[in-house]
Amino acid sequence: MKLIKTTLTAVLMTAIIIASAQTKPKNSFGLVYGDAIAANIPGKVNIHPVSYKLNGIDISANIYTPNGYDKSKKYPAVVLAHPNGGVKEQTTGLYAQRLAESGYITITADAAYQGASGGQPRHVDKPANRIEDIHGMADFITRYAGVDKNRLGILGICGGGGYTLKAAQGDKRFKAVATLSMFNSGEVRRNGFQNSQLTTIQERLKQATDARAQESSGGEVIYTGVAMPTDEEIAKIPTDLYREGFMYYYRTHAHPNSTFKYTLSSLLDLMTFDAATNMDLINQPLLMMAGSKADSKYMTDEAFEKASNAKTKELFVIDGATHIQTYWKPEYVNQAVSKLVDFFGKNLR
C-alpha cells in the first residue's frame, strides 16, 4: 500500500511540474530557459547567433555580449560546453547569459553532428568530436571583437564538463577551468550509471562493433537512447538524474533539437574513454561544482581527487541540489553563478 501511495504521489508531482512548465510565448532566439533574452536592446546583454566551420562541419553557436559592450575594449571570455543531449538554447545558454550579465563575453555552440550544427550521420556522440568542439569554440571566440584572448575561461556542464576536463588538459588557452554537475560519459557508458552494468560491458561492445560494421557496409544507422517514456513511466524512474532529466529535456525545457538519441556505434569510442584520466595535466585553477543531493556527484569527486597539479582547486557543493536542478532552479543557479563570477574574477584578471 505504501509503494502504491508513493508511486501515485510521484505521478501527481510529475503532472504538477508539467502543468507548470514554461508557458511563455516562443522565444525569438529559440531559448527555453527562464528570463531568457527575447530581443537585443542597446546597452543590455545581447545575443549574437553565429556560425563557423570546424573541420568542414558547420557549427551553430550563440555569443552573448555584456551590458554596454564596446568592441574597441577588451573583455574576459568564457567558453561553455553543453550537456549530453543538450543544446545551446538550454542550460548553457542560461549560464552564458548570466556570465555576460557579469561582464564576460560568452560562447556556447551545438556539438558537431548534433543540434543545429552540421555533420552526418546525425547524433554521432564521440568524445574526440566533443573535445574538438571545445577547441573550436576557443578558436572562434578568441578572434571575436573585444575578447582578450589572454583571459579565457571555460565552463562545462554535465557531459560537457567531462569533455571540458579533457580539453583543458592540453589546451592552455584556458586560464581557468570550471565544471558543473560533471558527467563522465565514458565511465557511465562503459560501467553503467553508478556501476550498474559491469557484467554486460563486453556484450555492449560487441553490439557497438556490429553497428559500426553495418554502417560501414552502407546499412542502416542504429540508434540508442530513443525511448520516449510516458509521464507515469518517468515518475517511476528510481534515479534522480534520469527521472529529472527526462522532465527537463522532454517536458519543462524541451527544445526540438535536443535528444538523448545517439548512434550505437559511438559506444566504441565512448566506452574506451574516461574523463578522469590524466587529470594531473590540468595545471590551471580548477573549480568543480556539484549538488549535495546529486546522484552523479561521485564522478566529480573521482576527477577532483586526481587533479594533483591544478594551480588551485576547489570542490564547491551546492547544498540541497540534485544534478538536474543545477540546470535551472534559481536558488541553485544563483549559487553557482556567484561562485563562477568569483572564480573567474580572480583568475581572469
Tell me about the largest β-sheet. Answer: 8 strands, mixed
The fourth-level CATH homologous superfamily is Alpha/Beta hydrolase fold, catalytic domain
Mean pLDDT: 93
By DSSP, the count of extended strands is 10
Inertia-based shape: globular
Indicate the CATH architecture.
3-Layer(aba) Sandwich
SS content category: alpha/beta
Number of domains: 1
Q: What is the quaternary state of this protein?
A: single chain
Radius of gyration computed on alpha carbons? 20 Å
**What is the succession of H and E elements?**
HEEEHEHEHEHHEHHEHEHEHH
CATH class: Alpha Beta
Q: What percent of the residues sit in helical stretches (DSSP H or I)? A: 25-40%
List segments where confidence is low: pLDDT < 50 over at least 5 consecutive residues: 1-24
Q: Roughly what fraction of the amino acids lie in strands?
A: 15-25%
Folded structure, characterized:
38% of the residues lie in helices and 18% in strands. It is α/β, with parallel strands linked by helices and 349 residues long. It has a single domain (2-184, 227-260, 274-347), classed as 3-Layer(aba) Sandwich (Rossmann fold), CATH 3.40.50.1820. An eight-stranded mixed sheet has the order 1-2-4-3-5-6-9-10, with helices on both faces. Strands 7-8 form a two-stranded antiparallel sheet. α4 links the parallel β5 (147-157) and β6. α3 (127-141) crosses α4. It is globular. 49% of the residues are buried.
